[in-house]
Structure of DUF4430 domain-containing protein:
Amino acid sequence: MKAFKKLNQSVLGIMLVLAMTASMLIAAPAKEAKAATAAPTVATDVAHDEITDVTVANVTDETVSYQMDDNDDDDAFIRILLPKTATVDTLKNLKFTITTNTALTCDSLVFSKSGNTYTCNSADLYNKSYTLSFGGVDYILAAGIEGGKTSVPAGETGVITGARLGGVAATMARDVIQSDFMGNPYFGEMGYDWTSVTYLISDVTLPNDTNRAAVVLSYSPYKKANQVTVDLTSGQKEVTINGATYQVTASFGDVIVVSKDNYYIDLHELAKYLSSEEETVASKEDLLHMFQQIQIAQNEYFANGARTFSAGTTVMDVMQDFLNFAYGEHKDNTVKYFTMGDSSRGADVSYIDYINGLSYRQVNRYAGWMYSDDPNGVWKDGAFNKGCSMPNVMSNAYTMTKDTKITWFYTTNYMAIYQ
């Protein structure tokens, strides 16, 4: 393959593990595989002299990027990012055209040619990639959908269109977790998807005396056959209906009480790592200061007892309330406890990259923030409890209930969690 001319470098995404504060790494990991290469962390734009245009049919606002990744010196990528409103069906059956200065060849896709424009009428690009060659230069073609939570797009097939929990109408939504590094060989080596789609059934508050272990979920058309019983003891459960995965959440009663008993930042693993001989990116002294300030802020946050939130509060809502407190920007506090760096704050935050400056960049390439809803927490007998529950949903889509127990934790080796 010809050498590429590198253009301006920009960090386009977060290390894969941190994009998964939903406590997964874009998808369920392979049972055994370990990557031969490190996870990509930086994408660099490259010149694309062989290609003058790439367009997608029946889609507006798509973004096309030409890039190389920092973990792979051999491959260049053509990446098509469809807008948030695009359906999965569109991604599975994508029609696109490529205008090129040289001949295009591809062993896996069929193209029709008109002048110097090549049209592919149907390509399945849902976590699949293809190699395109232009005059001896190879590109990996991959695509995805802009990440985030939206209403289920019109035209999405195979998905229920309405749901009720305990007889109460629920909100239907779709949550897409999208990596910036579409098509990178790392995904194949690890068995991960770069586009993960989950459907959400939520925004329901049921009476306190509801039998939470057997909540009836009915879906349209509302017939007896279209009912399943869901155990919502923890407030959240994953169910599969007609092959599609749904995260079902409900609140019970009107007030969510949050205390250190059911919402906790666990730093045991980081403490163990700092006491070892392992090297760190940032100095251990700085990491210790970050650690201590997080602990102090957490203690002060609950110093006057539990805190109450309204029904519908998410795991991220509580984290944002705590972070505002730690920065002295809270109705209950004007003292600034965090001084070591920024934190992931804002109304639109869907995952936690860093807290008080503590992020994957500060320890090693396998470190980062995650969360668990296991009632027993994540640390047991001096080690991480590998059997603990790891929600398959972003924290801003996980609705708290009176029975929810959340543990945020800083892992120094996310790969070990899935082994």
